Amino acid sequence: MNTDTPITLDSWLHNCGLPRLEARMLLQQVLDISHGYIIAHGQQLIGSSDQTRLNQLAQRRLAGEPLAYLLGWREFYSRRFQVTEAVLIPRPETEHLVESVLAHLPEHGVVWDLGTGSGAIAITVACERPDAQVWAADISAEALAVARTNAAALQADVSFGQGSWYQAQPQPAVNSVDVIVSNPPYIAVHDQHLQQGDLRFEPQHALTDNYNGLTAFQTIITGAAHFLRPDGWLLLEHGFDQGETIRTMLAQNNFSQIYTQPDLAGLERVTQGQRK
């Protein structure tokens, strides 16, 4: 849209080319106004600099860039998490993983989130269970910076370590962890979904292992016994078609009580196992 011509809030909403909800969220973000303000002041003119910014964001969204990156945040478990291009965007199905952690975490328990990204899992657990000792690890310094920012904003007590999976430092003591949890990169490198939708813009190292989508699971499952307490739990989010494979891998590595929980769409999504 031409920024030389003044435009009202209502006009921008109707003519920017975006779904109304997305357009409204961009208006609220850029102008720092509420939904109610937009309804009550629909004929208010937008300043030229703000209109330029809004049009730029609209064009990026129309090109497919995720709304969460444009806004700089995404809601997860009723909390707002900062997101940047350095981290995956938290998704609703991962809330099932959080619920599984909370169900298996004993009082004053220890939980370790491997590949924490934005910190959504670890921070949510810390907020929901302030009695717990929560650790989180990621190989990416940029991702850890986002996670630390989120932890500070939400006043969550989380100990962060940098490194690949169990090599992260600092880390919890051997045989001290009640629950290890992870949403690792599980998309095979040639999967066409990597070239579709939001995935085109998200960090590829957090989506794919550049192989068959199973190597991270192998590392996490085989190394878990070194850190889990006897009878501790390992909880993993995975692709909709990987449940049977993950169950087999857990059984082969001396886990019992193996169970896969479906997501709201009925697809296998979170598999858990208990150390024998």
At the fourth CATH level, what is the homologous superfamily of the largest domain? Vaccinia Virus protein VP39
CATH class of the largest domain: Alpha Beta
Rounded to the nearest angstrom, the radius of gyration is: 21 Å
The averaged pLDDT comes out at 95
What key phrases describe this protein's structure?
276 residues, alpha/beta, Rossmann fold, two-stranded antiparallel ribbon, 10 helices
Walk me through this protein's architecture.
This protein has helices spanning 9-15, 20-31, 35-40, 48-62, 67-71, 94-104, 120-128, 141-153, 215-223, 243-252; strands at 7-8, 45-46, 73-76, 79-82, 110-114, 133-138, 158-162, 177-182, 228-237, 255-262, 268-275. It is elongated, with a radius of gyration of 21 Å. The protein contains 10 helices and 11 strands. It folds into 2 domains: 7-63; 87-275, Vaccinia Virus protein VP39 (Rossmann fold, 3-Layer(aba) Sandwich), CATH 3.40.50.150. The model has no long low-confidence stretch (mean pLDDT 95). α8 links the parallel β6 (133-138) and β7 (158-162). The chain is of the alpha/beta class and 276 residues long.
